[in-house]
Amino acid sequence: MKITIAIPFYNAEEYLPDAIRSVFAQTFQDWELLLIDDGSTDSSLAIAKSVDDERVRVISDGKNKKLAARLNEVTQWAKHDYIVRMDADDLMMPNRIEKQLELFSKNDVDIVTTGVYSVLNNLEIVGVRGVNYKSVTFQDILTRKVGITHAALIAKKSWYERNKYDESLSIAQDLDLWLRTSKKNDLKVISIEEPLYIYREENNVTRRKLIRAYKNERNMIRKYGENRFHILLAKSYFKSLVVYLLDGMGKIDLLQKNRGKGVVSEEYISKFKEAITIIKNTKVKGLNA
């Protein structure tokens, strides 16, 4: 089984080197890595080009097409049958890919996702979140009963060939894709609770980004909501109100803390520290960072 790991990046010079190291630190090594520049104006592209390994391909056309377009292009560029998602400012636990591929071998699914460590930019753990499930329905996703961690997924290339991201959307392209595919019964996904992905979320928890996200959520509800339209809209407006109130009190950081379980087990903390040490000490030939 061979895989394609895809990391689109835009002005990610601060974090991209460790993202690359976490790929090289994987226990599963039969991969190709696509580093996809989306028109960066910092040194990100130079960092990507500095990697000296035949498994790594750097793709750059000088354009800023945004995430949805780049992810659709990955399907065209990928040489292998499984596509691994990862964001340029995040990290992977060293056994992430190995464990997710094991689940593909045991289950008839198109997508496998995992739990995450929610961390600040300095890698301080805020919490852990994740759930175990072996199937999801359209209603599960619409009502947010369960979520699919987008950046932590591995998907079959054949699934992506059937299902494209909507490039007209500037955010929440993943939610639109889950709703669209589940509605036509083409979303066979499982999730494991174990945190195998390290997710920097600090920059996502701002008033501007949260209000924008909830506005987009309401657009999705209007598009797909059917008979629960008004209840779901009311909940979404309430969440926006909470954001404004917390921001006014200078306590919006409470939302960051609320994204994960408040108490992280000693076992998870130990595994996290060990993983960070492994990643930081992983040598990547040529990497300029």
TrEMBL record:
Q: Which UniProt keywords apply?
A: Transferase
Instruction: Indicate yes or no for the key word Transmembrane helix.
Output: no
- What InterPro entries does the database record attribute to this sequence? Glyco_trans_2-like, Nucleotide-diphossugar_trans
Top-level taxon of the source organism: Bacteria
A molecular function (GO) term: hexosyltransferase activity
Location of the Glycosyltransferase 2-like domain: 4-162
Pfam short name (any one) = Glycos_transf_2
The identity of this protein, by name, is Glycosyltransferase
